[in-house]
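Question: Hello, beginner here. Any chance you could explain the protein record under this note? Any guidance would be welcome.
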Amino acid sequence: MTLLKRALAQLCTTAITLFGVAIVVFFVVRVVPGNPIAMMLPPGASAEDISRLEALYGLDKSILHQFVIWLGGAVQGDLGTSITTRQPVLELVLSRLPATLELSMMALVIAVAIGGVLALTGTRMRGTRVEGAIDVGNGMALSVPDFLWGLVLILAFGVLWPIFHISGRASPTLDFEFATKFYLFESVLRLRFDVWLDLVSHMFMPALALAIPLAAIIAQLLKQSLKETMHLDYVTLARTKGYGENSVILREALPNAILPTLTLVGVQFTFLIGGTVIIERLFSYEGLGNMAIDAVINRDLPLIQGIVILFALIFTAVNLVVDLSYAALNPRLRHG
């Protein structure tokens, strides 16, 4: 019952958050200088042409009236029509969302793998130069933003040693008809591992650029949690029973130290999705972040609103799952 109440409270908070985001993004994009209608028309367009298009997109009404109309449509799943492409916004964002989700999930897997190995190695080699080197490496990884890591990876593995692709989501010559927008998962399900390898070779460098800072955060937090756990009584008891150091770390310390890290990973995943905006542009990756930059450049107000609302929905949904998972795994919270 306590978990159910917590879930209902989080759902109410999520609804309020989304409403607040909708208000902020709707009014902010209209305060920014620039007329999206004027950008659509060729030079020399008459005032009548501008007025006609403003009426078509509802921009001739007051901002408050526009917001009420847009909110009513958004509640029913209608986010409006893109000014630049003349296509439904919901259709556009959902067509790009799978690419961003696959890139984010690959980055998360890489970050967890690297961060976990570094944390376990640092714990096993605590007090030695290896631990010091890991701490220095973590500091460097956190000091450099992900887009700079992307530039370094492009220079290293795209120019000097051209191992991976540096642009796009798949090779133009790829002979494969996808039934869904989840290319990576679909290629595995259809046992087309040649297609999967091509997709991974395009996704690996942007995913690694996103993963490096997150891996450093995971390594630092997990290593600190492990070091604190290694001094507890049940770990000492395991040593007295003759367990080796590796067994003590993996079987005794890790299961109890990993809970705070899992919570952090869930929270950081939302920031990981947001970080795809610059990385997707840098690698010409056909995802939601790349579309967001084009929408801002073209002053496509409905598309900007739709992308921001979708990002906010993903953030709140992930935070909701993380919060409920932590409550379910933590006995003190589970039993109130």
